[in-house]
Write a structure and sequence with these properties.
Elements: H1 2-13, E1 28-33, E2 36-43, E3 48-51, E4 64-68, E5 78-87, E6 103-107, E7 121-122, E8 135-140, E9 158-165, H2 167-174, E10 184-189, E11 204-208, E12 216-223, E13 236-240, H3 245-252, H4 287-316, H5 320-342, H6 345-367, H7 374-386, H8 388-417, E14 424-430, E15 437-443, E16 451-461, H9 463-469, H10 474-480, E17 490-498, E18 510-514, E19 526-530, E20 534-536, H11 543-547, H12 550-562, E21 574-578, H13 583-594, E22 598-603, H14 608-614, E23 618-621, H15 630-640, E24 645-648, H16 656-659, H17 662-665, E25 675-677, H18 690-709, H19 726-737, E26 745-749, H20 754-761, E27 769-773
Parallel strand pairs: 7-12, 21-22, 21-24, 22-23, 24-25, 26-27
Antiparallel strand pairs: 1-2, 1-4, 2-3, 3-6, 4-5, 5-6, 8-9, 8-11, 9-10, 10-13, 11-12, 12-13, 14-15, 16-17, 16-19, 16-27, 17-18, 18-20
Helix pairs in contact: 12-13
């Protein structure tokens, strides 16, 4: 019966595109994290599986299992535990494009070779992939469409026949998107529209030939192309196994501890009974494997609920209405205590005597007596202290002052030494003089009505952050924002808590948004922000890519709105974009070309290939003319003709007022305002002298008070451009989903490298948006 089922499956799977039979590739396994497919891998020994090292960044071995011996990703076969993970000793986790990106996973039971579980032979040391005589096949359980791995979809093992692409051609295709290391190779599918996707990291690339029918392992997939998948059919990047063969042999030659075999009924999860229905799906699986997955998933859910409940409980104690209520009660109690003390008979008698003495002193002054004579003052004090009631009152008062003052000092010192409660996170704090940025621990504030607590995974930086550090919008920021974080414009993260009145977001949602320079910054791991300033990010975008788009995309949409440009009226227009290599410049090139406009991009020459891929029809090199690129633009206008509008983005050099000649650049029919400068300029509030600055502050608070009295609330959303709020972010998400816009991610840095990241983002070397990621 087993042979009949296997034959039926082989006949069914080999007739469908990409689907295969496991008996043809028995070395393929699924490396799982918390019970879900995470990466691919290949069996290379009785106890070892080879995969990519990046799969285990910030991952413990107890979180990892391996499923083998099943053609289905989530059913059948055996699930074994992991006892050790060996990453290559030269692999560096903090390097963005690491070398020797290989890891060996040791399982807890020996793998007995069967028709569905067999080790694959390894390429000899320093050997290259044979260019002729045979074919190279990549197998794995990854997704087949752009996006994340979804449970219940695309569960079958699939294959992809590939060919090797030369390193020069691969560098030309990727440009600045990926840096090839010496032990990398590029493999491209021979079938158009097929490429690596989500979950394909670690997939083995095995070469088969007539002489070697069992196959030889030459590569492990590294760059899975989650954002594009097969959209642009870029080659996949693989780690060469032959370059690390000596290290692999050294690990394999270690003397193993005594373990049971994989077919032992005491230590391994039994093989699922696979019964194919009419559609070829298994009707039931292994009880033990399902229980393992159930425990992993239940543990993950319980941990998430525990974190969310703790965060909500801690934040609930600091909500505004609780603070106001407690403060009002404390003030009322103080008033009652002071009232009772003030009207006490001893205090009242003392006050009466003080008043009488004061009146007597005034009378003597009027009569010419010297009331300030030392002798007379001494005699008066002696007379007062001979009075028993007065002496007792003074003693009680002095004791009260001493005891109360001492208690207050002790309580204050104790409170200053206590660690603040609540969730803590890292944040980039700027000092008062804006001269230093420090990565410090910060306490997350509680969420109020209409607010959301977001765990920021990554945030973008640009030249606006440099302006904020130099004091731009400092006057307005002091009125709107009370924190110390001033950098980080666009961000992407996960919702941890929601405040009262937030109905369209819930805990666990993946969101994105942007923060203006007068509203603080997003460079904090826990960010409290109004729900109107973020929205759900498009599915399939990683956090790094999602953080690169909100700020740049919102500014690009705002510029097109000011020009009244839309998809229905852009066709045939000629538009020039200065600083096209910036984040908003790349977004403008994509949108205008998608809407039918003829775009001329002005940028340094190293960005030419990227901008042409984004849709630019003409390119003008401004290398070496950053101080006055308008001369190059005028020369291009004389040769190709003027434009309907000219947009100056970050990196455009001199402002239009200092070097542009609108008559030479724009058509005679161009409307007023067709020469548009998108770069941040000093605000009027930053240059107000003291009397006018005080008048502005008074007017600002008066306006906010009037809005509160009329029921408009105390928020400051009216200061923001509408494209930076919920509506604009939703419009960006739709453009990404339709393929009209994609984030252009330049480089990713860690928080401690912020100064290097900011210098790169403001230099001519940047293409797209620079992102800082919290590890």
């Amino acid at each position: 019966m087993e042979e009949d089922l296997t034959h039926l499956r082989r006949k069914r799977l080999t007739t469908e595109t990409g689907l295969v039979c496991l008996e043809d590739y028995p070395y393929t396994v699924s490396v799982r994290l918390h019970g879900k497919h995470w990466c691919g891998g290949a069996i290379i020994g009785p106890l070892w599986v080879l995969t990519a090292a990046q799969c285990f960044d910030y991952v413990a071995k107890d979180e990892v299992t391996v499923r083998m011996g099943s053609v289905f990703r989530d059913f059948g076969g055996r699930i074994v535990s992991v006892v050790d993970i060996r990453r290559h000793p030269d692999y560096k986790m903090d390097q963005y494009y690491p070398e020797h990106n290989l890891a060996m996973v040791k399982v807890n039971v020996q793998i007995v070779s069967t028709s569905r579980m067999q080790p694959v032979a390894l390429a000899i040391a320093d050997a290259d992939l044979p260019p002729l005589f045979g074919e190279t096949v990549v197998t794995g359980y990854g997704s087949v469409v752009t996006g994340q791995i979804r449970e219940g979809e695309n569960q079958e093992l699939r294959r992809m026949i590939v060919r090797e692409v030369s390193r020069g051609e691969c560098r030309l295709i990727y440009g600045n998107d990926y840096h090839l290391q010496h032990d990398n190779m590029c493999l491209l599918s021979v079938t158009k529209g097929v490429a690596l996707c989500a979950g394909d990291t670690g997939d083995p690339a095995v070469h088969f030939s007539g002489v070697n029918r069992a196959g030889t392992l030459y590569g492990i997939a590294l760059f899975s192309g989650t954002e594009e998948c097969a959209y642009k059919s870029k080659p996949g990047v693989f780690a060469k196994v032959s370059y690390s063969r000596l290290w692999i042999d050294k690990v394999l030659e270690e003397i193993p501890e005594h373990t049971e075999s994989a077919d032992s009924t005491e230590n391994v999860i039994p093989l699922d009974v696979e019964i194919l229905s009419g559609l070829g799906r298994p009707s039931f699986g292994s009880f033990d494997s399902d229980m393992d997955e159930l425990k992993h998933r239940a543990g993950e859910k319980l941990e998430a609920l525990h974190v969310a409940a703790k965060t909500a409980a801690d934040n609930g104690k600091t909500r505004v209405h609780d603070v106001v209520h407690q403060t009002a009660e404390a003030i009322q109690r103080l008033r009652e205590a002071f009232h009772s003390l003030w009207h006490h008979e001893l205090i009242a008698e003392g006050r009466a005597r003080a008043v009488a003495w004061t009146k007597e002193a005034v009378r003597r002054v009027k009569e010419g007596a010297p009331p300030l004579s030392p002798m007379l003052l001494y005699e008066e004090l002696v007379t007062l202290f001979h009075d028993r009631v007065w002496r007792r009152s003074i003693i009680i008062f002095a004791c009260g002052v001493a005891l109360g003052g001492s208690a207050g000092v002790l309580v204050g010192l104790r409170a200053a030494r206590l660690t603040p409660t609540g969730p803590t996170a890292r944040a980039l704090h700027s000092h008062t003089d804006q001269a230093v940025i420090l990565v410090e621990d910060a306490v997350s504030p509680g969420v109020g009505a209409g607010e959301v607590l977001v765990r920021v995974q990554a945030f973008s930086i640009c030249s606006v952050d440099r302006g904020a550090l130099r004091g731009r919008a400092h006057c307005l920021r002091s009125l709107v924002y009370r924190g110390h974080v001033t950098v980080g414009r666009g961000f992407a993260g996960i919702v941890l808590d929601v405040g009262y009145g937030v109905l369209d977001l819930e805990m666990g949602d993946e969101v994105w948004g942007c923060v203006s320079e007068w509203s603080g910054g997003a460079a904090t791991e826990l960010l409290t922000i109004r729900s109107s300033r973020l929205s759900k990010r498009p599915r399939g975008l990683s956090a790094d890519s999602a953080a690169a788009l909100p700020w740049a995309g919102a500014r690009a949409l705002a510029a097109l709105r000011s020009l009244a440009y839309a998809p229905h009226n852009c066709k045939g227009k000629r538009v020039a974009v200065l600083g096209a290599a910036s984040g908003e410049g790349c977004a403008l090139v994509q949108l205008l070309s998608a809407w039918g406009a003829a775009v001329t991009a002005l940028a340094p020459r190293h960005a030419a290939l990227t901008l042409r891929d984004l849709g630019a029809q003409e390119f003008v090199d401004v290398e070496g003319t950053r101080t006055n690129p308008w001369a190059s633009l005028e020369a291009s206008a004389r040769s190709t003709g003027p434009w309907d509008c000219v947009l100056a983005c970050d990196g455009a050099g001199a402002s239009p007022a200092n070097g542009a000649n609108p008559a030479a650049l724009l058509k005679a029919t161009a409307p007023r305002g067709a020469l548009l400068d998108l770069r941040a300029r000093p605000l009027l509030t930053d240059r107000l002298p003291m009397p006018f600055s005080l008048l502005f502050v008074t007017s600002f608070y008066t306006y906010r008070l009037l809005r509160w009295l009329t029921g408009c609330g105390t928020h400051t959303d009216w200061l923001e451009d509408r494209h930076m709020l919920r509506g604009g972010l939703d419009a960006l998400a739709k453009l990404v989903d339709t393929g009209s816009l994609a984030p252009i991610l330049d480089k990713v840095y860690l928080p401690q490298d912020f100064e290097v990241a900011l210098a790169h983002a403001c230099s001519d070397d940047a293409i797209g948006t620079t992102v800082v990621r919290f590890p």
